[in-house]
Write a structure and sequence with these properties.
The protein has helices spanning 2-21, 83-86, and strands at residues 44-50, 60-66, 78-82, 93-97, 100-104, 112-116, 127-131, 142-146, 152-156, 163-167, 177-181, 196-204. The chain is mostly beta strands. The longest helix is centred in the first third of the chain and has 20 residues, at 2-21. The protein is globular and about 45 Å long. The protein starts with a helix and ends with a strand. One 2-acetamido-2-deoxy-beta-D-glucopyranose binds at residues 54-56. Residues 1-17 form the signal peptide.
């Protein structure tokens, strides 16, 4: 009697323990290595490094810039542009919370919030900028992913390997270069022929 109680307790304990031991990354981090997370403890900036470049390759820093043409620049969505092509950076660092990518406002943008929404294949990584909200509506689709072991990569929709930098077709800034997820020739927001594949690395921000 006593022995079987101990035995059943042991079974119960191991039944509880096994799922924890075998836990796999899930959600936006599904398929990536242990340590990949939708909520890294650090803040960061993003940099686009040519795909296939070595671990120490320096990339092109990415910042928020105006997105696809709306009726006016102010009515447009926002995207991640190379800092070199956009020319300034008013959102000095980014946080990732439960898979939502949240650029943080600098002093000039105080009181505003940048919130990502869903990123479909062929689209730029899109944000809306509105007054700061305590419980904003965002798409929880990003992961700080460990792919190679030597750097942390941004993944969207469980995919870190399909980002590209493409020349935008926006009319208000010439030669703006934007981050696109899985570019295709049908999207009129950028010139497909200019797209070059990149990985997007998270660079811890300690400023
Ligand atoms: C990251 O940024 C958030 C929001 O600005 C801030 O509250 C937090 O202290 C920062 N975390 C670290 C580790 O610097
Ligand atoms: C990359 O940088 C690290 C640290 O500075 C260094 O130890 C390593 O040898 C470098 N790797 C390459 C491929 O240059
Ligand atoms: C794409 O943008 C880059 C950087 O602004 C520029 O140097 C290049 O000429 C552009 N390419 C085309 C085909 O417009």
């Amino acid at each position: 009697m006593f022995a079987s109680a101990v035995l059943s307790f042991a079974f119960a304990a191991s039944a509880l323990a096994v799922p924890a031991l075998q836990a796999r990354q899930s959600g936006p981090c599904a398929g990536f290595g242990a340590g990949s997370t939708v909520t890294p403890t650090y803040n960061f900036t993003l940099t686009a490094v040519p795909s296939g470049a070595g671990a120490n390759a320096t990339g092109a820093p990415l910042v928020l810039g105006w997105g696809p043409a709306g009726d006016s620049p102010a009515a447009s969505e926002w995207v991640l542009s190379t800092e070199a092509s956009w020319g300034e950076n008013e959102w000095p660092y980014i946080t990732l919370q439960d898979g939502a990518l949240l650029p943080q406002p600098g002093t000039d943008e105080h009181g505003l919030g940048a919130y990502n929404f869903g990123t479909d294949t062929g689209d730029e990584v899109l944000f809306t900028i509105i007054g700061e909200e305590a419980s904003p509506s965002t798409a929880e689709i990003f992961c700080a992913a460990l792919v190679s072991g030597s750097y942390v990569e941004l993944a969207v929709n469980g995919d870190a390997g399909n980002f590209a930098l493409c020349n935008a077709t926006t009319t208000w800034v010439s030669n703006q270069v934007n981050l696109v997820y899985a570019p295709n020739a049908d999207n009129e927001d950028y010139t497909y022929e200019t797209c070059t594949p990149v990985r997007v690395e998270l660079i811890p921000y300690d400023g």
